[in-house]
Structure formats: structure tokens, C-alpha cells
Amino acid sequence: MLFKENINLLYREIGAFESDIIYIYSDLRGFSPFINQFVNKNKFLEVFIEPFLNKGITVIIPTFSYTTSGIFNTGITKTNLGALNNWILNHPKSERSEHPLFSYSAIGSKSREILINIGKSAFGYDCVFNRLLKFNTKFLHIGRPVSDGNTIIHFIEQNCGATYRYNKNFNVNVYRDKTYIGNNFSAFLRIRNDKNNFYGFDFKRSSKILLDKELISSANLSINLTDIQLYDAKNAFEILSNEFYKDNLLFLKPGTKLPYLDL
Question: Where do the structural domains in the chain lie, given as residue ranges?
Fold first, then answer.
């Protein structure tokens, strides 16, 4: 069976087509043996996205640039992420959100509704995640285990008031092509200067919770690093928010202690 047909079958098997919006995390190294079935790399990358677009499902992928100073232009500034992230960023039909550090690109009928004129806080009021949760949005991990992380934890941290993070504004002038959008976009960042602790994130415990609650559907090509995993965004948000209130160290590396716990 051709790789393109296999991908469609795997998506159908895990229920990926039962969505309004698909948010993709990817690491395609495990799929590289199949690239010789295509005339070029671009056609290979299309296979992961086209099944959704053909069914009217909007696809969104992170295109973070982490621009902290100077100028961020949605049409020019490059992403520092992987092959599929660059593919969607350079697609002629894609839209890109305006946050200079944490931007996203999307293709589909709901692209503008979830990405354009967002709030200035990366994980706060009217951010991309805030909008995604209004739809039937699902997270799709392609070749990248759920345990490797999901940026929604930072939305949960800000929403639930994590004390090991703080808001910081960035002096970046944001443009959409030639149109000036604004300045002083902010992000909820880790405290990095504590002498005893570096508050690095960890998603392993969170992914186990989602697995234990049978929220994650999985399939693969019986080849290493080809797992495809799917789970509902709203359910994940609600479950992990409740778990964070029980344990506000949930998203931190094991062994981390908050300052007030060291007293």
C-alpha cells in the first residue's frame, strides 16, 4: 500500500477526521524511508496535511520564531521549528498569527477566526488557545510522542496562576506585510534566575494522566518513530487544569521545589 493511503487509514483509525480543527506537533524522522515515493520533499509533506484540507478541516501548526526585539513580520520572519512547520508557513493559502515569540500558521476556513487580531498575551486573554477551545479542536502528534510536550500547558499555567512564571512584555514592532499591528506583546515565562531551581517544563506525568483516562488514540506504521496520537483539546485542558490545582508542580521537572516550599 502506498504511504499516502496508509496515512489516510491511520487518521481514520484514530478518529482524526472527526474534528473542526487539527493542531499538529510533528517529528518526521521516522517517516523518512517513504520520501522516495514522492517527486520532491514538498509533495511528501503535503501528504500529512491534505487529507484534512480535503475534508474541510482547518490545520494549525506552531511557527514560533521567538523574536524578542526588533521587528516581527508575519509574512517574512522565519520559524525556528521543523520541516512541516516551515511547509505551512510558506504555503500560499496559510494565515499566520501576530505574536512575535509564539506565532502559529493555519490553512482552512477557520484560519482567520483563530489567528487574526489575537490578544497581545501569548497565553492570556484572547490568545490562540483561548480561541481553539471554542471549536472541536484535536491535537495530533505525528512521530512526536505526547510525552514530549504540548504548549497548552503554558495556557493552563497562566489561566491557573502558576507562581513560577511571570509576564514579560517585549519591545518588538509587529507587522502584517506593510501594515503595523502593534508593540508590547507579552509572554508568561519561566523564572530563570532562582539560585536553587531552574523551572524547566516536563509533560511526562501529564501525558500519563491523559493515557490513564483513555483520552489518547494511537496508531502507527509498525516502524519505529511513526506513532500518530490524537486527543481532544478541550478535554485535555479541563483534565490538566484540574490536576494542576491538585499539584502545582505538575508541569515541572521531577524534584523541582518552589521557593515557598523550601522554607
Answer: 3-251
